[in-house]
Structure formats: C-alpha cells, structure tokens
C-alpha cells in the first residue's frame, strides 16, 4: 500500500503556495485581521476556503465547467466580483483614514467574524482566478497523473517549475491541499496581529494597502466583464 505521507505533505505545500501570494482574498483577510482581530481574519480566510470546497465539489459534478461554457454567466459573476471588490476597497480605505486602533470584543467580535466569513465566501465565489484554477488544475487532483506543484505558484511559478512533482489521484493530496490553506488562513492573521501590537501605525497601513489591492483587482474584473458582455 503506497505511503500517503508524501502526497499529504505535497498537498500542504501546494495549498500554502497558492494561498500565500498577494491578491484580493489576502487583502480582505489582512484588512479584517487588523480591523477586527485574529478571529475575524481567520473566519474570513475560512470563507474563502469554503468557496474552494464548493468549487471542488462543483468541479466533480461539472458545475464549474458549465459556468465556463457560458461566457455571459462567467462575465456576470466576474462583474459582481469586481463590484464587490470596489465596495470592500471603499470600506478598507475608510478604516485606513479612520485610524484603526482597537478591535471589537465579545459579541461585537463574533458579529465581525461572521461578517468577514460571508464577505470572503461571496467574493471567492465570483473570483475568476479561483474558477479558472478549479477548471484546469483543481479538477485533476483526484485523477491519476502528475502535478508540478510549485509551477502553479502565482507570480513565480515559472522559476519554481520542476522542483516538486507529485503523483495525483490520492485523497491525501486533497486533504493536504486544504490543510495548507488552513495553515495560511490561521497563521497569516496571527502574524498580522503580532506585528500590529508592535507597530502603532500598522493597522492603517495594512488597511490602505488592502484598499489599493481590492480596488485594482475590482477595476480589472469590471473591465473584463464589460468586454465579455459587449
């Protein structure tokens, strides 16, 4: 019986490699973490990971492929995602200019954590990058074959190609993939909160950077949606 540990560890590396690079989802997680605390940041990341789980199940049943076959449907989803990113960018900019200093506690913290989860879940469901991933790479994770894990790392994949090639078709790879994402969405908010406790102006800077990232991706997605619909 094959040892599942290498596939599990490779999945963890794969999940971390995809979750860690800068992007709209990490911008939302960062803004929630410094504005509303570690729980809110972790729950926000959980919302994004839950969307990945939905995409995974949907790809197995052909739902994600259905979206790709109809450009109008995909464009509408991308447009909604772009509009949401611009709206969340406004909220992050407001936090940045308001000078976030404290985070809510008690019932307030629980409500903010739930809000972050819903925000990230809806945003991830309309994120074309995640849709494309599950259409191409994700759906093949349980099919026998090979996967160049680090080649799909955003921004630096070409430089890392060939460093870690694993066999697909093992459930351990999927388990490790989601475990890697889970490690990121808990560790990233914790690191931000630790930095926030040491640097007084850290929260407004992170909120401002998150606003810029969300606004940039939001405009790109809106333009893409309009071009497709027209």
Automatic annotation (TrEMBL):
Biological process per Gene Ontology, one example term: amino acid transport
Keyword annotations: Cell membrane, Membrane, Transmembrane, Transmembrane helix
Keyword Zinc belongs to the record: no
Subcellular location: Cell membrane
Membrane-topology descriptor: Multi-pass membrane protein
Keyword Membrane tagged: yes
Source organism superkingdom: Archaea
GO cellular component: a single term: plasma membrane
Stretch forming the signal peptide: none
TM regions (residue ranges): 46-67, 120-142, 172-192, 199-223
PANTHER family tied to this protein: LYSINE EXPORTER PROTEIN (LYSE/YGGA), LYSINE TRANSPORTER LYSE
Protein name: LysE family translocator
Species: Haloplanus salinus
Organismal lineage: Archaea, Methanobacteriati, Methanobacteriota, Stenosarchaea group, Halobacteria
